[in-house]
Amino acid sequence: MAKKTTRVPEAGGWPDAVAVPALIAGAVLTTVGFLMAFLWAAPVNGAALSAPELVGDVMVTHQQLISQKIFYFHMPVAIVSFVALAFGAYYGIRFLMTREQRFDTCSRVAMEIALLFVVLTMITGDLWTRFEWGVWWTWEPRLTTYLILMLIAIAYFVLRNAVDDPERRATYAGVVSVIALVDVPVCFMITRLIPSSIHPVVAREGGMSPDMAATVFVVLAGMMLVGYGLYRLRFREARLGERLQALKDMLE
Amino acid sequence: MPRVAPSTFSQYRTLLAKDLRQEFRTREMLTSMGIYALLVIIVYGAALALTAHGVDIVHMGGGLLWVLIVFTSLLGLARSFAREKEQGCMEGVLLVPLDRSVVFLAKATSNILFMLAVEVIAVPLFYFFFMTSEPAAPTLPFIVAPLLVGTVGMAGIGTMLSTITSNTRSADVMLAVLFIPLIYPLLYACVTATTAAIAGTEFWTDFFVMPLVLACGYDVVMLLVCWVLYDFVVSA
Hints:
The complex is a heterodimer.
Chain A: H1 14-17, H2 19-39, E1 53-55, E2 58-60, H3 62-67, H4 71-98, H5 101-133, H6 141-162, H7 166-193, H8 210-251
Antiparallel strand pairs in A: 1-2
Chain B: H1 8-26, H2 28-47, H3 57-86, H4 89-95, H5 100-131, H6 144-165, H7 171-199, H8 206-235
Helix pairs in contact in B: 1-5, 2-3, 2-5, 3-5, 3-6, 3-7, 5-6, 5-8, 6-7, 6-8, 7-8
């Protein structure tokens, strides 16, 4: 009976060749998006203010209109973190199915990228919180669920450090990466389930104007490329390290 | 006479009976969890000593009660698998050709029972020490629902995590690091529902039903995920 072979990811193929160009392209796109956000995209709903003014019942200042620009980075970074977590869980499941250590390496690297982007989301979000709502932190549902997501991602690495046996470590890590993914929809849906949340549901509130959407899209594409490039480079490093270790073991 | 393999349910019953019998003989878990709960209440007494008359206990009570439950169950969950490992009991159970998810269900059920037993003592005590200064709302008995839903979810997730952490270094800390973030959505919903029932204001059902439904949903999803993944964890 022919054994079904599983394709395992390996370093050194074409994906590694495009990793550095992807990283550079991502950096360029993000920079372009940054310039677009400030120079091209109009303030929300075409508002322009020279002095503080009462809009609706809310006192709006120029600072708030400028701080809204964080949105163009905040949302793409959050989406990339969700994607990275999804990949972490996907490779975690692949490991549990095949018991192939390399999937565990993939899962770990994806979780590292996820943690990086989760932290970036927290930083951009916190700056925004400060300027928009005037506080550094508030126990608002999405902020809180996202904080939880960050804690789970950190706990994932704490757990990895606390287990010695590689096989067992990989199994536990795979399981936790799947459980972490369960929190992503919770995090995503919370603004829809608890309407009192201050986070807007962008799609519900009339969507974005074309110039806003274009800027978000450029930054999102840039961040995706950065995430991909980092993932491949980190994976190659981890993988080459493993191969070196295997060679060393053979020599002994 | 042909040997008939025992049904899944009888396997479940046997495993559950084993846990309960062990507990009745040693009374290790219930004593330690019960005393711990009492100690947390005493710490509350010190923490609230100077504010006892000024603090809005009706709206804080639900939260304080859940802090008590979370930490007490954390203690119990950490013990529940450490004990199995000390006695080498887990190896014995795993040698039996049975579906691993039965092990999960039995262990989760026994954890639910222990936690409920402690809550039966701790919740009235908490009421006695802190809540009698205010007249009880007529909706107070409804706190049973969030307590039950929360306990089921916490025991389910906790059973899974304590299986994982019982094989790690510094198991107790590791359990807390994983447990508290993962139960957070459940905790948030249960605190909201409990507080709504304790305060019992005019529109209390709005803050009671919706969080309870969300908590049930989280329970179902988490228990299913844990149930499916348990095989990998316990065999590793």
